[in-house]
Specification:
Blueprint lengths: L1 E4 L4 E5 L9 E5 L8 E5 L2 E5 L9 E5 L2 E5 L3 E5 L5 E2 L7 E5 L2 E7 L8 E5 L2 E7 L4 E9 L3 E7 L4 E9 L4 E5 L8 E3 L3 E3 L3 E3 L8 E4 L1
Parallel strand pairs: 1-4, 2-5, 3-6, 4-7, 5-8, 6-9, 7-10, 8-11, 10-12, 11-13, 12-14, 13-15, 14-16, 15-17, 16-20, 16-21
Antiparallel strand pairs: 18-19
Length: 208
């Protein structure tokens, strides 16, 4: 396990000119090392994608567990994806008393994994695909989700969505642009907030 203690100092990362859409600024584990945990503690990080129209690069590549804790502030700007969850159901993001912000994302904000938020917030504006796409999501404490201007669903759960009673969710101008579209493989797009519909459909949604 690795812990980065930022002591409130700022870190800025910009993807280099040679980056592709499969380049990552920060990788948490790998295909052969999925049991790793990386903790960002009191860290202020800004990750900027490459300024080209294509090949912007991803911010986080998660195979194991990423913990964002203790007043950390994570900002992702103009990347291909903010969180590429290559570990599938093994990939986890736990956010505690911290904030994550993403603007002008060329693909998904996220594409699966298990997510927890406790007294934390996620703000997403302008995604060309899905916003917060998860395998499972659980929010507790005074958590907040602000999501706007996504082409497809703002919040998409492949298995379950569990919103705590004090969670605030704001969604505006989010897809799907074509309700009922999608595929049998990836499920159908029906609403700005939805569970997967189709083969291997979702299990449950809970509020409060």
């Amino acid at each position: 396990s690795v812990t980065i203690d930022g002591n409130g100092y700022g870190i800025a990362i910009t993807m280099p000119d040679g980056a592709t859409n499969r380049s990552q600024a920060i990788s948490v584990g790998s295909e052969t090392h999925r049991d790793i945990t990386v903790t960002l503690d009191d860290v202020d990080v800004t990750i900027n994608g490459n300024g080209t129209e294509t090949d912007k690069g991803d911010a986080f590549d998660v195979w194991g567990t990423l913990k964002i804790t203790n007043g950390s502030n994570i900002t992702v700007e103009k990347a291909q994806s903010a969180f590429t969850m290559q570990g599938g159901e093994n990939a986890k993001v736990n956010i505690e008393k911290s904030t994550v912000t993403a603007n002008d994302i060329n693909g998904n904000f996220s594409n699966g994994g298990d997510w927890t938020l406790d007294d934390s917030s996620i703000t997403i504006n302008d995604c060309d695909s899905y916003g917060l796409s998860v395998t499972n999501l659980t929010t507790t404490g005074n958590s907040k989700l602000d999501i706007s201007n996504t082409t497809f669903s703002a919040i998409y759960g492949h298995q379950s969505l569990n919103f705590g009673g004090n969670t605030v969710v704001n969604v505006s101008n989010c897809g799907p642009k074509e309700p009922g579209s999608g595929t049998e493989k990836y499920g159908f797009r029906d609403a700005p907030i939805q569970l997967r519909r189709g083969p291997a459909g979702a299990k449950s949604i809970a509020i409060g």
